[in-house]
């Protein structure tokens, strides 16, 4: 059976999408609804398709396997943590009736928030298909506080008994709060790690004597607050600069402002936050079975094939007996992730365990993203085109509005083969915002982090999304709250800390703790 692969990392569609008509109707920094502009008074940049297409074609990484293009400061797991976070803040659980009553998303909508609704759905009552049965219930007819996880099937010499796949329905669809998190294997395993994180916290609370009826609420709050801290201080500050979150909390948000309710700014969602597309690798060291030099390389294509949304996990529709590699009913045991290869779980990895770096944050995307399967076309062209369609201003206008002290010069934008194409069409002086932010990361951040425009937009939006959530730690406890779960550095909490706390570091190798 052939399997179609849908390689669109980071920005699958779910729920509403902004329209130019709605965005153009906004002014100022009132609460605009689900979408809005950070810079509503700036002129949109108009560029024809032909120059955009030529620029997009010049954004192809000519040497995607060259180590010179690696960003050793950011492990590759953050590429897919970024995708998980994107799905969390863009998940739309608004009812169909509310959408029909409020098509512009002005009042009846779910606020963008780092609240893990992609994991919890509507909770045990509203989304009971996501939850395990209550073992404390005599007849087992109610959901308990724990989230479901899914089994794998044993393949090759890898026999695994714990649950190391997403839970799935009889035809392979993932039973999770956001179907997009089954799009590729690394984001699926990241989602699974979050399920296990919640369950481990439930176990800890139960062991400490918390009454059964209070475990879910306490666990959700603890998990969500640690996740929010991790996103702000491990993810955001890793891609921007250390201390930027505290600086924004002290001095206030200058550009991402709202009166009461956060919104999703298109300068963030359509430009700044799409920096992650340039971080995608062509080949990964996934585990001891699938690794360059010691087995079969885990190509991006393969990471999409071993999923239920994009690939060949099809539940009961798979042949019986199973005939690996694909199609299969659930994830095969030989594809379970080895987290040591994606995050800095160990101080130093063993020589045979390669930590994947991300690719540099720069204007170059791997070739496969220029030719998406299924007629998806060029991802860089789609990004550039979408910016024009939604009326984004130029990078120069945004930099001026932000009073950036050292904005990119036209000569800097014109550097390189990509810059030469930009200059040919005058785009070195009036630059699409997404491309400007990638060029700024290359020229100002050395490809290791975002430059001042990109960093400010990303950091302010994430701080605002957390602060605008009235259940967040920033709202309920303030900026001086510190994580309480075990961590390498007390009072801090990173993705590596989360994975160490959960255990199951590399189930394929029988490694649970480090």
Automatic annotation (TrEMBL):
<keyword id="KW-0964">Secreted</keyword>
<dbReference type="InterPro" id="IPR037120">
    <property type="entry name" value="Haem_peroxidase_sf_animal"/>
</dbReference>
<protein>
    <recommendedName>
        <fullName>Heme peroxidase</fullName>
    </recommendedName>
</protein>
<dbReference type="InterPro" id="IPR019791">
    <property type="entry name" value="Haem_peroxidase_animal"/>
</dbReference>
<feature type="region of interest" description="Disordered">
    <location>
        <begin position="1"/>
        <end position="27"/>
    </location>
</feature>
<dbReference type="InterPro" id="IPR010255">
    <property type="entry name" value="Haem_peroxidase_sf"/>
</dbReference>
<keyword id="KW-0325">Glycoprotein</keyword>
<dbReference type="Pfam" id="PF03098">
    <property type="entry name" value="An_peroxidase"/>
</dbReference>
């Amino acid at each position: 059976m052939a399997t179609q692969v849908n390689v669109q990392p980071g920005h699958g569609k779910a729920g509403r999408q902004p329209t130019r008509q709605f965005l153009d109707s906004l002014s100022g920094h009132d609460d605009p609804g689900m979408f809005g502009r950070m810079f509503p008074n700036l002129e949109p940049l108009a560029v024809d398709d032909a120059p955009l297409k030529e620029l997009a074609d010049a954004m192809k990484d000519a040497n995607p396997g060259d180590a010179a293009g690696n960003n050793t400061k950011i492990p590759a797991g953050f590429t897919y943590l970024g995708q998980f976070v994107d799905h969390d803040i863009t998940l739309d659980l608004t009812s169909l009736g509310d959408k029909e009553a409020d098509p512009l998303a002005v009042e009846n909508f779910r606020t963008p928030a780092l609240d893990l609704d992609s994991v919890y759905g509507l909770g045990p009552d509203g989304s009971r298909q996501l939850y395990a049965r209550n073992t404390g219930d005599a007849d087992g007819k109610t959901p308990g506080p724990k989230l479901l996880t899914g089994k794998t099937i044993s393949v090759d010499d890898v026999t695994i008994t714990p649950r190391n796949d997403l839970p799935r329905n009889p035809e392979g669809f993932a039973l999770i709060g956001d179907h997009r998190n089954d799009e590729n294997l690394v984001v699926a395993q990241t989602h699974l790690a979050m399920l296990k994180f919640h369950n481990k916290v439930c176990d800890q609370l139960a062991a400490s004597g918390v009454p059964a009826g209070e475990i879910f609420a306490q666990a959700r709050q603890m998990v969500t607050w640690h996740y929010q801290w991790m996103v702000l201080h491990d993810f955001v500050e890793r891609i921007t600069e250390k201390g930027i979150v505290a600086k924004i909390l002290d001095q206030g948000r200058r550009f991402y402002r709202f009166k009461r309710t956060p919104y999703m700014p298109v300068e963030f969602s359509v430009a700044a936050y799409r920096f992650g597309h340039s971080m995608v690798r062509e080949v990964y060291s996934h585990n001891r079975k699938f690794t360059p030099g010691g087995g079969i390389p885990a190509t991006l294509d393969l990471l999409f094939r071993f999923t239920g949304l994009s690939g060949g996990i099809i539940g009961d529709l798979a042949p019986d007996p199973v005939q690996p590699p694909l199609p299969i009913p659930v994830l095969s045991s030989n594809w379970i992730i080895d987290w040591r290869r994606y995050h800095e779980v160990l101080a130093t990895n063993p020589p045979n365990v390669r930590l994947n770096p991300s690719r540099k944050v720069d204007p170059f995307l791997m070739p496969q993203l220029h030719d998406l399967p299924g007629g998806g076309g060029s991802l860089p062209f789609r990004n550039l085109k979408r910016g024009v369609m939604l009326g984004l201003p130029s990078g120069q206008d945004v930099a001026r509005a932000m009073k950036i002290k050292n904005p990119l010069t036209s000569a800097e934008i014109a550097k390189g083969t990509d810059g030469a194409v930009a200059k040919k069409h005058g785009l070195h002086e009036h630059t699409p915002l997404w491309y400007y932010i990638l060029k700024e990361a290359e020229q100002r951040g050395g490809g290791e982090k975002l430059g001042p425009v990109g960093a400010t937009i990303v950091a302010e939006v994430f701080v605002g999304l957390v602060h605008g959530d009235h259940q967040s730690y920033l709202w309920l406890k303030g900026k001086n709250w510190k994580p309480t779960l075990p961590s390498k550095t007390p009072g801090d909490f990173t993705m590596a800390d989360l994975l160490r706390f959960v255990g199951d570091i590399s189930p394929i190798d029988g490694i649970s703790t480090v």
